[in-house]
Amino acid sequence: MADSANAGQGGAGHDDEGTSRRDFLYLAVGAVGAVGAASAVWPLIDSLNPAADIRALATSRVDLSPIEEGQAITITWQGKPVFIRHRTSEEIETAEEVPLDDLIDPEPDAERVIEPQWLVMVGICTHLGCIPLGQSSSDPKGDFGGWFCPCHGSHYDTSGRIRKGPAPRNLDVPTYEFADDTTIVIG
Length: 187
What we know:
Elements: H1 2-9, H2 12-47, H3 52-57, E1 60-63, E2 72-77, E3 80-86, H4 89-97, E4 118-122, E5 145-149, E6 154-157, E7 162-164, E8 176-180, E9 183-186
Antiparallel strand pairs: 1-9, 2-3, 3-4, 5-6, 6-7, 8-9
C-alpha cells in the first residue's frame, strides 16, 4: 500500500530531487531574464542623459581677473544673462548696512555672495522676466544704485535685492563656486 502511494507521487527522493532541479532552473532562467531585460533597457535609460555638449553648457568658467573694481560684465549661462559685478567697498558697505526690515524680500548681503567684492546674479527681473539696466556705467541704476528695470519700474540695490517696484523677490543668485582666486564656475 505504501509502495503504491509513493509510486503514484514518484517517490519521496525523486520529488525532492525534481523540485530542487526545477527550482534551480527557475532561478537560472529568472537571472538570465533579469540580466537580459537590464541590458535591453539600459541603452534607453542612458539615452535620456544629456549629451556631452549640453553638459558642457551646464557650467561656465569665468575669469574675473580683467574685471576692475566698479566694473560689471554680463555672460550667458544656460541661455540666461548672468551679471557679475566687482563691487566697490562703498557698494559693499551700502549693501551690508541696509536693515532687513526695509527689504521686500529680506536677505542679508552676506548670504548672496561668497566673496563680498564679487556679486553674481541671474540678470532677469523677477517681475516679468525683463533684463534690468545697470550693467553699463552709463545705464540708469535706479534709486538704490544697483539695477533698474524700465519695463515696470523695479529698483534693485547694490546686492541685487528688490527695493521698490512690482518685482516680488530679489534677483536670483545662481549656484557658483571659486575654482581659484580669480575664476568662478557657475552651475
